[in-house]
Structures are given as C-alpha cells and as structure tokens.
C-alpha cells in the first residue's frame, strides 16, 4: 500500500466517529516571571471561552502555586513543564510528581525538544512518562525531528523511534488520565515557521499507527490523543486540528497573550 493510500485509509477509518474534543495546552516556558504569569492567568480567567474546548496552562515551576490559585474552579487545568524521575529526597533542583499533584497539576509536559537539546535522553523521557502515569498526571509527550532529519528523509524514523522508546512497556493509562503526544517539529517551533498541515497530518498518522502497534487500537483511540505544536496561532490552528487524528495544540509564544490565547481557543471552539 502506498504511503498516501495508507494515510487516507486510516483517516477514513475514523470518519463517522464522534469528533475528538479540542484541547489547547499553553506552554508558558520561561517567558514570564511569577507576578506576570499570575496577571496573565487572571486575564485568561476573565476571557470568555467555549466550554467545548479543554484548556490547560503550564507555567514555570515557581508560578504553579499562584497560577493554580487563580485557575481554581474555572475549569482550566494546571500543568507543569517538567518533572523529576526520582522520588522525593536528595535531588537538588528537581520537582517531584507528588509535589506537582499536591499543587493541583493534572498535566505535565515530557520530553520537550528544549530539554532534549540540553541532554535529556529517551531513557529519561521514558522514566518521566512512567512516573507521570503512576502519579495520575496526564503526560504531554513531545516528539519531533530536526530540519536536517527531514532534509535527509529520516523524520518518520526519528519520530517513530521517539514515540516507541517513550511508550514501550508503560502501564495502561489510568481511567482518569489521558496521554497526549505532541508532534512538534523542532524547526517549526517559534521563531521558526509552522509545518504545513499536510506534513503535520502525515506525521500524526504515523504516530497514530505507532501507538496502535504499542497499545492496541482500542486503548490508543480511547486514551491517547495526538496534538500539534510549532508556531500555532489563531490563523492557522484550525488547519492543524482536524479532530479525527489531531485533536489539539501545544502553544508557546502565542499563549503568553490572553488575547491571542483566547482567539486560538475560540476559533477551535467554533470549528
Ligand atoms: P511555539 O512553541 O508555539 O512558540 O512555537 C511551542 C512549543 O515549543 O511547545
């Protein structure tokens, strides 16, 4: 079967299924000092938002308490940008999954390319996935290739390997947690430009096939969601989120403006 035929057949097989619920994760990275993060959270809380979109905000560690307090009771979830693999104890500079849970986090970003670039390995990422899932935190696993991988036509292999190494031998996701896989080509993350929707969809389909081969079709489709990240804004978000294969977005730069974040959420809510 040609690649294109395979892609279409997979997508067709999901047609007729209820469209996946849109999901927006805001990755505030290290953009904002705590005080500004809290102000931004208040502005996000004030914005009107369609209830049909799930939203989570991932501020920096020091802002988790303040932002969490602002978001409490709003329906907007709190997420962290990283977690330690170790249990509470002698780990300088680390934050445990227990602590994240106590702070009210429901989500955690794992394996972001900005951490992979500073030496995080597939093995550590797998460990983080395990720890997150054992603590009922929904992981947002980031995978994606460098531009050179794409030029040399090994992007599919690279991403399949990242997904396989992160997910193989994980326990089944708990009923209360979902597992998100964010396809984030490294070259598309701001200030790079977005991938084309066709490229994103093609890679999402490959990720979809990979998770089916690891978890089986039923679990892959009930508990695992694929999202896209990389220069997402309100003008391009709906071209990525088809709600059959790609159900949401991980947003960096555009998420640190309440107005831009609201536009992204509203556009998705009206799709
Ligand atoms: P961006 O970041 O939206 O600024 O490209 C996305 C990410 O790195 O998660």
Give the class from helix and strand content and strand pairing. Answer: alpha/beta
* Molecules bound to protein: 2-phosphoglycolic acid
Number of helices: 12
What is the spatial order of strands in the main beta sheet?
Answer: 1-2-3-4-5-6-7-8
Using only CA atoms, what is the Rg? Answer: 17 Å
The outline comes out as globular
What is the averaged pLDDT score?
Answer: 93
Share in helix: 40-55%
Secondary structure tally: strands: 8
Strand content bin: 15-25%
- In this structure, how is the largest beta sheet organized? 8 strands, parallel, barrel
Give the CA-CA distance, first to last residue: 32 Å
Low-confidence segments: 1-13
**Helix and strand sequence:** HEHEHEHEHHEHHEHHEHEH
Please tell me about this protein's structure.
The protein has helices at residues 3-14, 34-46, 64-71, 97-102, 113-116, 122-134, 147-151, 155-167, 197-215, 217-223, 237-240, 258-269, and strands at 23-27, 54-58, 77-80, 105-110, 138-143, 179-183, 224-229, 246-251. Helix content is 43%, strand content 16%. Strands 1-2-3-4-5-6-7-8 form an 8-stranded parallel barrel, surrounded by 6 helices. It is of the alpha/beta class and 271 residues long. The longest helix is centred in the last third of the chain and has 19 residues, at 197-215. Helix 2 runs parallel beside helix 12 and helix 9 crosses helix 10. Strand 2 (54-58), helix 3 and strand 3 (77-80) form a beta-alpha-beta unit. Residues 27, 184, 189-190, 229-232, 250-254 line the site of 2-phosphoglycolic acid.
